[in-house]
């Protein structure tokens, strides 16, 4: 609130590749004295916010065995009516007030798929009511809201999953395995983009013709956002406004950074800078449609320092050629729509000479002398560059990552465990840096972040901040 992503691996079958990654450690794994749900029992589910993603989430959840949808809450009456139809249950309990759902004893878990500004409030209320929570990304609307959500989760002992479902796919597991096996050497740079060029892609979703203060609970929608008269555009196209949404950073960078944190095991960047522009969709929105950010990841005992560059351009009228590449000193992992490609490329030890080199500019004897010395220093075996190898991984054709993300959530609910793949600590470590992109953009500043303590730092406090330049006088020699 406002005060605040087989055919084969050349030598590995898919089956063995998947088995090899089954043991991937979860980021957090506390087993508590939770009231376990008998593994044979149904998990009774309710959805809070049955808009676009509320439908997709609920359908993905229901593709798992023994899940029953018992209730939905929404602030637009048309969606409450359509939910009964979509989920083929004329008796489905529907309400404008999600607290009525939280009060029900027959609800074990809730999906929270409201606009971003409601995530923290609804999550905390649900955890306090003893419900397990699947909350959509970004976990929070403001950095300041993260701690309260984490505290409520810890206190509740309940299971929580944040909804960047792509990390539950086989390609992300495979990328993680490759990085851990050192296939690309120390990571030095990551880049990812997500461009679009359409009105729907730029969040201008259809508005129902009956939208009015009668059919929409406008005051509840606003919550603690600034009061204003009913505005159907703000309600149905909330992503375009900072009061309710988190711009391209919270909406799309968050998926990219979540994937990166999952595959690298990194806790987050310590320096964040973003820049952009409202270039095309000048329709009253107050968020940019072109944004790039640079995030610096510090060196840790497990990882070398690397830089990440993320970009969204909703006005890309050219060829859209999105790529996510993780580049290391010995290769690259490039995500493709259907999986990934690992390219291994290791330099020879010997530096080489000739070609676009300075050698030919030296006097003839100096050149001969140089070559003699080089031959003595660099025996033939140090000059051999390993051939570039390309290894492709294709995700299983019928893979359903969204269902699997829910499967992980439900498995943990049944076990009474808090060890989901995207728990709120992980979720906040992904959300905070992207929310910092907005802060950097709107306040024209570099944001310093401590990824370990998950706190923002003042510039002076920032470790690793570049040393101040010497004054002009000092620079004179
Ligand atoms: N994981 C993904 O790939 C993915 C994709 C799209 C959206 N999302 C996330 O899902 C969330 C919803 O996005 P959407 O596109 O479905 O939005 P939407 O506008 O289509 O639906 C949001 C619904 O929430 C309802 N709502 C608002 N406040 C509520 C409240 N207090 N109680 C009950 N209902 C309330 C609204 O009436 C609306 O129907 C967002 O956080 C978004 O970032 C995630």
Describe the secondary structure blueprint for this structure.
Elements: H1 14-22, E1 43-48, H2 52-62, E2 67-73, H3 77-86, E3 93-95, H4 98-102, E4 109-112, H5 119-128, E5 132-136, H6 146-156, E6 160-163, H7 170-180, E7 187-193, H8 218-222, H9 232-236, H10 247-264, E8 271-277, E9 290-297, E10 306-313, E11 324-328, E12 331-336, E13 339-344, H11 364-377, E14 389-394, H12 401-415, H13 424-443, E15 447-450, E16 455-457, H14 472-475
Parallel strand pairs: 1-2, 1-4, 2-3, 4-5, 5-6, 7-10
Antiparallel strand pairs: 7-11, 8-9, 8-15, 9-10, 11-12, 12-13, 13-14, 15-16
The structure holds nicotinamide-adenine-dinucleotide.
Nicotinamide-adenine-dinucleotide binds at residues 48-49, 51-54, 73-76, 79, 98, 113-116, 118, 136-137, 163-165, 220-221, 238, 251.
- What is the terminal-to-terminal distance? 54 Å
Estimate what percentage of residues fall within beta strands.
15-25%
The helix tally amounts to 14
The assigned structural class equals alpha/beta
Shape: elongated
Count of folded domains? 2
Q: Percent helix among the residues?
A: 25-40%
CATH-derived architecture of the largest domain:
2-Layer Sandwich
Largest sheet: 10 strands, mixed
Gyration radius from CA atoms, angstroms: 26 Å
CATH superfamily of the largest domain: Dihydrodipicolinate Reductase, domain 2
Fold-level CATH name of the largest domain:
Dihydrodipicolinate Reductase, domain 2
Mean pLDDT, all residues: 90
CATH top level class name of the largest domain: Alpha Beta
Hetero groups in this structure are:
nicotinamide-adenine-dinucleotide
Uncertain parts:
1-34, 465-477
Spatial strand sequence of the major β-sheet:
14-13-12-11-7-10-9-8-15-16
Order of helices and strands: HEHEHEHEHEHEHEHHHEEEEEEHEHHEEH
Question: How many runs of DSSP E, i.e. beta strands?
Answer: 16
